[in-house]
Amino acid sequence: MNQFRIDWKNCKSGEKVILISFCMALISMFLNWSYGSFLPQNGLTQLTIVFLFFWAYPLFGVMKGKKVNRRIGLGCALGAFIATFCYIFSRNAEIFGGFINLAGNGPWVLLFSSLALGVGVYQCDSEYRKEITSPSSSLPSENWPPK
Questions:
Q1: Are 132 and 125 in contact (CB under 8 A)?
Q2: pLDDT by residue (tens digit) across 50-106?
Q3: Which terminus of the chain, N or C, has fewer Cβ atoms within 10 Å?
């Protein structure tokens, strides 16, 4: 059975970006997400922790040392971006005839980490394609099947 591994020294830059974006997303859960009540609420009390499921496929791919499919990975990043964007703009409230957005810092950090996830997936796929097509690989069977 293959175990999960994170070998930071041997990780490619795209894999590092994916890992850092997950850490940013995890940290965002402990930041303020909504200022609508008397006490600011973090991502755990808002039940927005489900947004972290968008990182499941790319994160497990990196941890298992397997290739992250570009389409699925970018779909996960786009899903996280859209869900967070919808959350941010659902926090608009009308107060004294004007509109105010009551979203805290947490969703904005998650929004930027979902962009970083997309960049990491794209960069990881580009690095993998360069590795396959590089002339330094003498036999194609060494790189096949993809990990």
A1: no
A2: 999 999 999 988 888 888 889 999 999 999 999 999 998 888 777 788 887 777 889
A3: N
Residue 115 neighbours by CB under 8 Å, 6+ apart: 77, 81
Task: Output the DSSP codes for 36-104.
Answer: SSSS-EETTTTTGGGGGGGGHHHHHHHHHT-PPPHHHHHHHHHHHHHHHHHHHHHTEEEETTEEEE-B-
CB atoms within 10 A of CB 130: 10
For Cα atoms 33, 39, 45, give the angle at the middle one, nearest 5 degrees: 50
